[in-house]
């Protein structure tokens, strides 16, 4: 239990953290990896280079300072982060190290402004916040161990399928011959790879792109191009060098961006680009269970060449009694124009959404951050309730309100 004095001091630092939070977290990661380089086996190097991890941590620290006396407000965000931590095999023994270097970064960046009272108060607050994460994550580890496995497990590639010019699917089964565990449509797994010539392991989280209840997991990976080296390294390695009979390591399914079972509510699955992957899991699950719910599947892509799962989507839609598919292509070719489900050229906009949706339905959104930001703003402007809007980030969560499409 934190004292009133500690709470007052921590809350008083919120404006400073809002202003200099990313500077502090950037300094934190630099110092942490210098002294504990083995932690680079856990963290996504591309997110570090792009500053997304630093921004996500800065947002979390700022939120903790703001709500230090109401930590229950942060529980949904804590659970989302905890899913990622469990999937990456972050352990409770990492938290004291993080706390030490976070306090050190606050002191070194803020200088004399970080008085002994502030450092002491943040030290106490960190212990409380860390324990919340540790407790939530331990429950997740226990559940994973009971239902599947709790760390990394080797899987064998049993099929590799090109879904579009950019996206390839990998079908995976456990090397030990065990049964593939169940999962909730929308969840993801962490893939861990050792790439020849690289000192550290690489972790990437990929949505499971097919319905549960199969003999294999399916992940579908977009080949990244025109990005920093680390961002494309894993996807290109998977595309170019991982083939049938090769092995990769996975953690058990995780994530809270999942299909909710509210039978009377219309389902809207809205995706852009590779954001279609968790939507395929949800759509195929609804098809397998012969759902009679109203379902609207909306997908935006540059054109048909990069549009993955087009035939599979049509098959699932046709098997459902109350489902429709709506495709928007930015620059369609002649063949795209003949697609019976193609409805618009350009970008998904508010006017178009207004014609397609049931405003009282449930909305699941995944794609590039700018795409999600726009779609969520459109839905809110159209009067959709916030609690009915669900979305999934690739990588660390960033603030949609602060996001700039630079």
Give the class-level CATH name of the largest domain. Answer: Mainly Alpha
Question: Might you state the CATH topology name of the largest domain?
Answer: Globin-like
CATH superfamily of the largest domain: Globins
Termini gap: 43 Å
Main pleated sheet: 6 strands, antiparallel
Low-confidence segments, given as residue ranges, are 398-406
For the record, the count of structural domains works out to 3
Mean pLDDT over all positions: 92
Q: What is the radius of gyration computed over CA atoms, rounded to a whole number of angstroms?
A: 22 Å
Cofactor: heme b; FAD
Site (Influences the redox potential of the prosthetic heme and FAD groups): 84, 392
Site (Involved in heme-bound ligand stabilization and O-O bond activation): 29
Keywords: Detoxification, FAD, Flavoprotein, Heme, Iron, Metal-binding, NAD, NADP, Oxidoreductase, Oxygen transport, Transport
Summarize the structure.
With 406 residues, the chain is of the alpha/beta class. The protein has helices at residues 4-12, 14-35, 45-50, 52-66, 75-88, 94-110, 116-147, 229-241, 276-288, 310-318, 334-337, 350-356, 369-381; strands spanning 153-162, 167-174, 188-193, 202-207, 217-222, 247-250, 267-272, 295-301, 323-329, 342-345, 362-366, 389-392. The strands form two sheets. The chain has a six-stranded antiparallel beta sheet.
Task: Explain how this protein is built.
The chain folds into 3 domains: 4-147, Globins (Globin-like), CATH 1.10.490; 153-250, Translation factors (Elongation Factor Tu (Ef-tu), domain 3); 267-392, Nucleotide-binding domain of ferredoxin-NADP reductase (FNR) module (Rossmann fold). The strands form 2 sheets. The chain has a 6-stranded antiparallel sheet with strand order 4-3-6-1-2-5. Strands 10-9-8-7-11-12 form a 6-stranded parallel sheet, sandwiched between helices. β8 (295-301), α10 and β9 (323-329) form a beta-alpha-beta unit. 43% of the residues lie in helices and 18% in strands. The protein is globular, with a radius of gyration of 22 Å. By secondary structure, the protein is α/β, with parallel strands linked by helices. It has helices at residues 4-12, 14-35, 45-50, 52-66, 75-88, 94-110, 116-147, 229-241, 276-288, 310-318, 334-337, 350-356, 369-381; strands at 153-162, 167-174, 188-193, 202-207, 217-222, 247-250, 267-272, 295-301, 323-329, 342-345, 362-366, 389-392.
């Amino acid at each position: 239990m934190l004292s009133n004095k500690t709470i007052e001091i921590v809350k008083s630092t919120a404006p400073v953290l809002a202003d200099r939070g990313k500077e502090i977290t950037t300094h934190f990661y630099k110092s942490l990896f210098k002294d504990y380089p083995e932690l680079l086996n856990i963290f996504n190097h591309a997110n570090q280079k792009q500053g997304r991890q630093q921004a996500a941590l800065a947002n979390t620290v700022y939120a903790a300072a703001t709500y230090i006396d109401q930590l229950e407000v942060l529980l949904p965000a804590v659970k989302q982060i905890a899913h990622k931590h469990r999937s990456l095999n972050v352990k409770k023994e990492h938290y004291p190290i993080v706390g030490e270097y976070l306090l050190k970064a606050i002191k070194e960046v803020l200088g004399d402004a970080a008085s002994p009272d502030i450092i002491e108060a943040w030290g106490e607050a960190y212990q409380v916040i860390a324990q919340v994460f540790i407790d939530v994550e331990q429950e997740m580890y226990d559940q994973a161990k009971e239902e599947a496995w709790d760390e990394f497990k080797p899987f064998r590639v049993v099929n590799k399928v090109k879904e579009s010019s950019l996206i390839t699917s990998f079908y995976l089964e456990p090397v030990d011959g065990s049964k593939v565990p169940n999962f909730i449509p929308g969840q993801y797994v962490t893939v861990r790879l050792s790439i020849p010539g690289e000192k550290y392991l690489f972790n990437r989280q990929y949505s499971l792109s097919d319905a549960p209840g199969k003999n294999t997991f399916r992940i579908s990976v977009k080949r990244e191009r025109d990005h920093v080296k680390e961002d494309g390294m894993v996807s290109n390695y998977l595309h170019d060098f991982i083939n049938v009979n090769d092995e990769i390591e996975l953690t058990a399914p995780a994530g809270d961006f999942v299909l909710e079972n509210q039978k009377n509510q219309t389902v809207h699955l809205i995706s852009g680009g590779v954001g279609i992957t968790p939507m395929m899991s949800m759509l195929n699950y609804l098809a397998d269970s012969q759902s009679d719910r109203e379902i609207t599947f909306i997908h935006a892509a540059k054109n048909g060449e990069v549009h993955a799962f087009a035939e599979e989507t049509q098959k699932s839609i046709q098997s459902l009694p109350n489902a429709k598919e709506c495709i928007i292509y930015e620059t369609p070719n002649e063949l795209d124009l003949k697609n019976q489900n193609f409805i618009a050229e350009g970008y998904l906009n508010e006017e178009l959404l207004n014609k397609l949706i049931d405003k009282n339905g449930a909305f699941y959104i995944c794609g590039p951050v700018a795409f999600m930001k726009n779609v969520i703003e459109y839905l809110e402007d159209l009067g959709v309730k916030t609690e009915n809007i669900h979305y999934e980030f690739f990588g660390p969560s960033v603030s949609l309100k602060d996001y700039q499409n630079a």
